[in-house]
Amino acid sequence: MELNEVFNIIEKNLSQTNSNLGFKKTGSEDNMLSFAGDLGLYRLVYYPDNTILAFECAYEDNGSETEYNTIARNLLDLNECDEREAKSISNDMLDEVERMFEVKKKVDLDKVKMPKSVSRTKAKNGTISYDVDSLANRFGALYPEFKNVIKQNVVDYGEFLPETFFLEHGNAKVLDIIRNGTEAEQKRLFKMLGEVFEDGTNEVQDVIGVTILGQMKNDPEMMAVADKYMSEYMAGPVHEINKITAKNNRYTKKLANPPAYKPKKKKSFNPTNALSEINK
């Protein structure tokens, strides 16, 4: 089968999706078929030396300097390829285009469930510890205006990503209450954080100690408020963390641009360990 015949089959199969996403054909060379639109660019490139058809894409058009990333490779031996195999390859390419460029459909957040919290009784008696889902649930219960934001976080990532939620949304509320809230508001906030911290997994302790309260950056007035309500168990790590986050260092740079979230369980909580996780 000729390469142009394979390209014709692929192009035909892609036509409806290209139309939906606003992609138009920009070129067809001996070994390449390319498309572009407002969402980015992609191309199918055939490498005859190793009989590979590659799907490559980019999100920014920089002309001849555009940097494409190879997303998928399909074995394509033109001497053995028939129409059936060409259609199979075209379906693979269609899947890649949709996966990389399809705009997410709007989700009815009313039908999305909040992350589930561990019960207070089980957490207190040590049967099970509070986790990051528990923190999300209790934060949403305390501040209902954030429930849809939490749900959207779950929809976007397939799980609750605490660093993303708090750095982009939740911390603004927390810090405002510490600075400007009434005593009752401050007490409720630290009661919730304290309970989750003291009976929580090491992971959720890291989030509370570093990602949330570490953002006080050792501000004297905020630290004074925190000290009114934090237990001794919580106050020690929070103070140590704030001594570090108050400075412009590698840890604070990572906090400003956190790496992809990867849930991990550690054996015991330690402020240094918590901060070292950010630097990975």
What does this structure look like?
The protein contains 12 helices and 5 strands. The protein has 280 residues and is an alpha+beta fold. A 5-stranded antiparallel beta sheet has the order 1-2-3-4-5, with helices on one face. Strand 3 (40-47) and strand 4 (52-58) form a beta hairpin. Helix 4 (132-142) packs antiparallel against helix 7 (183-198) and helix 7 (183-198) packs antiparallel against helix 8. The two termini are 49 Å apart. Residues 260-268 have low confidence and may be disordered.
Give the total of beta strands: 5
Quaternary structure annotation: single chain
How is the biggest beta sheet arranged?
5 strands, antiparallel
Shape: elongated
Radius of gyration: 26 Å
Instruction: Let me know the average pLDDT.
Output: 87
Please, how many helices?
12
Tell me briefly what this model is:
With 280 residues, the protein is of the alpha+beta class. The protein is 54% helix and 12% strand.
Keywords:
single chain, 280 residues, alpha+beta, five-stranded antiparallel sheet, 12 helices, 54% helix, elongated
Break the fold down into its secondary structure elements and pairings.
Elements: H1 3-21, E1 24-28, E2 32-37, E3 40-47, E4 52-58, E5 69-75, H2 83-101, H3 120-124, H4 132-142, H5 147-157, H6 162-180, H7 183-198, H8 202-212, H9 220-229, H10 232-245, H11 250-256, H12 271-278
Antiparallel strand pairs: 1-2, 2-3, 3-4, 4-5
